[in-house]
């Protein structure tokens, strides 16, 4: 039986960094719970707006939320009205989950634009999930998603897999397509991995996307 490991977790500390950056010994479990709640809230609220990832940085009495998205205008809104509404909702969510409510903590939000959404696994996976929810044929989605990803110069290999009751069949099954290289066991290989769920009338379909973007030391040599 094969043992599957998340490609990002497998490379943490080697070529990948942590999405939460802080250090705390006494309040570690409290900070971890707060990060999990905030990230889950933002993911559910912004997943339809081209969300890639959410990074959290902490300092003394301050939390910085860095939201990477391909549609920053939809989140910010006219004159920054959208970002203010989002900040108020985050503060209410944070106050409800935090343990030490006497300590004042400032929450800041920074929006960063994703310039190449076709080369981002999370955006690609969510796009495929949206198409499955609209009842498009899954084979067409697999082929079109793979072709769009491989058109980007950064992507040297791609793989997409869907699992569930595809096209409403009685038994669940798994279908996948791949193109190019996919060295999952090479630590220096930059693998962009993401998962998404499509909530259809006949059940949930899971989508997994792998994008291989070359080796890290090769990129450094090219830059030099």
Automatic annotation (TrEMBL):
GO molecular function: mRNA binding; rRNA binding; structural constituent of ribosome
CDD domains, sorted: KH-II_30S_S3 (cd02412)
GO terms (BP aspect): translation
Ribosomal protein listed as a keyword: yes
Function in brief: Binds the lower part of the 30S subunit head. Binds mRNA in the 70S ribosome, positioning it for translation.
NCBIfam families found in the cross-reference section: rpsC_bact
PANTHER family reported for this sequence: 30S/40S RIBOSOMAL PROTEIN S3, SMALL RIBOSOMAL SUBUNIT PROTEIN US3C
Subunit structure: Part of the 30S ribosomal subunit. Forms a tight complex with proteins S10 and S14.
Protein known as: Small ribosomal subunit protein uS3
Biological source species: Candidatus Azambacteria bacterium RBG_16_47_10
């Amino acid at each position: 039986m094969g043992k599957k490991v998340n490609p990002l977790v497998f490379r943490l500390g080697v070529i990948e960094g942590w999405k939460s950056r802080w250090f705390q010994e006494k309040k570690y479990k409290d900070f971890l719970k707060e990060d999990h709640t905030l990230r889950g809230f933002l993911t559910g609220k912004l997943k339809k707006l081209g969300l890639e990832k959410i990074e959290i940085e902490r300092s003394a009495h301050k939390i910085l939320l860095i939201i990477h998205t391909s549609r920053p205008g939809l989140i910010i809104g006219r004159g920054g009205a959208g970002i203010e509404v989002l900040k108020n909702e985050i503060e209410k969510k944070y106050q409800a989950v935090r343990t030490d409510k006497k300590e004042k903590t400032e929450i800041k939000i920074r929006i960063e634009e994703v310039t190449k959404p076709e080369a981002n696994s999370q955006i690609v996976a969510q796009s495929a999930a949206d198409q499955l929810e609209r009842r498009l044929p899954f084979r067409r989605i697999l082929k079109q998603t793979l072709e769009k990803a491989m058109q980007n110069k950064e992507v040297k290999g791609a793989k997409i897999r869907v699992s569930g009751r595809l096209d409403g069949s009685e038994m669940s099954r798994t279908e996948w397509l791949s193109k190019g290289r996919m060295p999952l066991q090479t630590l220096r290989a930059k693998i962009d991995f993401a998962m998404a769920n499509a909530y259809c009338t006949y059940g949930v379909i899971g989508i997994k996307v792998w994008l291989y973007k070359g080796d890290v030391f090769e990129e450094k040599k090219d830059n030099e």
